[in-house]
Design a protein that fits this description.
There is one protein chain. With 238 residues, the protein is α+β, with helices and mostly antiparallel strands. The chain contains eight helices and five strands, in the order H-H-H-H-E-E-H-H-E-H-E-H-E. It has a five-stranded mixed β-sheet. It is flat and about 80 Å long.
Length: 238
């Protein structure tokens, strides 16, 4: 039995070699954008401007190296678009006194840029009326819509612990009310209504499970998904 122990070591070696060649083959098949994203993930000192990624939206090289992108000469048009939008909405993250780190986040998926803000930051308690900080955030969103040829989906979310308040009998009405309030604010101040859509998810898309201490604050939120018009129909999902 002892004399055949080398077979186990040899089998492990062959498995490792197969895994290595599989990884090399996958890297060879990957496109340039995927390779850049992988390189950014493993590069020391990568900068992240997001606190938690929303479902279906992952971090990419745009967000990780947002401060360095302006020195690159080989950016694609999509990357340039995302970079410009991120730079425009970054002032929201600089409202340090009013905006805790866990209250906002920016992510990008190569198709668009997602900004999320918690409801307790955007609205007065148990209402869909905006707080002063919420209005400042919406003004930054409005600047993006006026400056760039982008569309936006406003997504309202509620936490499972919310009752909907007296004027909103369910979390569906509450989440939709939040999204619609944001749309009304933007349109009233000059945003093109043809480029804005809103949707309410109630508590069907939580960011954190109920066991997390600040789950309610994370799950009750409004998201602004900016995307280019040419991807609206075929790629962008609600």
């Amino acid at each position: 039995m002892a004399g055949s122990s080398w077979k186990v070591a040899y089998a492990d070696f062959m498995t490792a070699m197969m895994a290595f060649f599989l990884v090399m083959w996958l890297l060879n098949m990957a496109d340039e954008k995927t390779l850049k994203g992988l390189a950014g993930y493993f590069t020391e000192g990568a900068v992240h401007f997001t606190n938690s990624a929303a479902p279906g939206v992952s971090n990419n090289v745009i967000v990780q190296f947002v401060e360095k992108l302006d020195t690159r000469s080989n950016m694609s048009e999509a990357e340039k678009s995302d970079y410009a939008i991120i730079q425009s909405i970054k002032p929201i993250l600089s409202l340090k006194d009013a905006v805790p780190n866990s209250s906002t986040g920016i992510t990008s998926d190569g198709v668009g840029v997602l900004l999320h803000m918690t409801s307790n930051l955007m609205f007065r308690p148990n209402t869909v009326d905006f707080s002063a900080t919420g209005e400042k955030a919406l003004d930054e969103v409005l600047n993006v819509l006026k400056k760039y040829n982008v569309w936006v989906i406003v997504r309202g979310h509620a936490d499972s612990s919310e009752t909907g308040a007296p004027d909103y009998p369910s979390r569906w009405e509450l989440s939709s009310g939040r999204a619609n309030s944001a749309v009304r604010y933007l349109v009233a101040r000059g945003a093109d209504p043809k480029k804005i859509r809103s949707v309410g998810y109630a508590d069907t898309r939580p960011l954190a499970p109920p066991s997390v201490p600040d789950a309610a604050a994370k799950n009750s939120r409004v998201e602004f998904y900016f995307h280019r018009p040419e991807v609206m129909t075929n790629i962008v999902g609600y």
